[in-house]
């Protein structure tokens, strides 16, 4: 049967049990895994930019809240950023594992196994593109606050009662986040390309959605 202009219809009517069940399943993150891996790598790249962003903060913010060697600074925001990076890397590896298993099993994958893989993919997508994205957004919002100067940060602390630039006393520096995020982004981009190429060579797999 030839392909229509609607990739979801093709998935429902196609030979892949996995794609059919994925198309019929309710969910927010129903995109192809190679796309989700690419998105996760972009989020990691944004975290890798935290050190340059911190270096661009006004002098008043850096001198009052990020004293000492900037790459070694470990504000509370850095802990949140590291948690987001770790979640992105782990769920990205999970996404890749699901894709590899699914491609290896097509066209003989059973409905039960497809459901199990879809459940695993859904967990990775929810944590990686939901929870981790929220952590990344909050981290960047905190650094954006720093561009208002030390007075803006002080006003926030007075209202909220929490200092996002306070030292975390954990060995999770901005430099560490940059290295981990860069390496993670490269790995996930390579996995995204691998899954995409392997999907193209597998007539049972869709790369359209």
Protein model, in words:
The chain crosses the membrane at residues 37-57, 77-100, 134-157, 177-197. Keywords: Membrane, Transmembrane, Transmembrane helix. The structure is a single chain. It is built from 9 helices and no strands. The chain is mostly helical and 209 residues long. It has one domain. The longest helix has 36 residues, at 111-146. The two termini are 19 Å apart. The model has no long low-confidence stretch (mean pLDDT 87).
Secondary-structure map:
Elements: H1 7-13, H2 17-24, H3 33-48, H4 50-55, H5 59-65, H6 76-105, H7 111-146, H8 150-160, H9 174-200
Helical amount? over 70%
Structural domain count? 1
The separation of the N and C termini measures: 19 Å
Tally of DSSP β-strands: 0
Query: Would you identify the regions where 5 or more consecutive residues have pLDDT less than 50?
Result: none
Shape annotation: elongated
How many H/I helical runs?
Answer: 9
Structural class estimated from helices and strands:
mainly alpha
**Rounded mean pLDDT score:** 87
Q: Report the biggest beta sheet as strand number plus sense, adding barrel if it closes.
A: none
N-to-C SSE series? HHHHHHHHH
Report the C-alpha radius of gyration, rounded. 21 Å
Summarize the model shown.
This protein is an all-alpha fold. It contains nine helices and no strands.
Please name the defining characteristics of this protein.
single chain, 209 residues, mainly alpha, membrane, transmembrane helix, transmembrane
